[in-house]
Amino acid sequence: MDRTLTGRVAIVTGAGPGIGRATALALALDGADVVVAARRAEPLEAMARELAELTGRRVLAVPADLKDLDDCRRIVARTVAAMGRVDALVNVATHPHKRAAIAEMDWKAYAESFQLNVAGTMTICGEAALRMAEGGGGSIINIGTLATTMLQAKMAEYSSTKLAMIAASKTLAREMGRKNVRVNIVTPGYTTGEPLDRLIEQMAAGQKTTPEEMSRRLAKSAVLERHVDPEDMAEACLFLASDRARNITGVELHVTAGQWF
Question: What are the distances in angstroms from CA 75 to CA 121, 139, 191?
Answer without folding.
Answer: 12, 16, 27
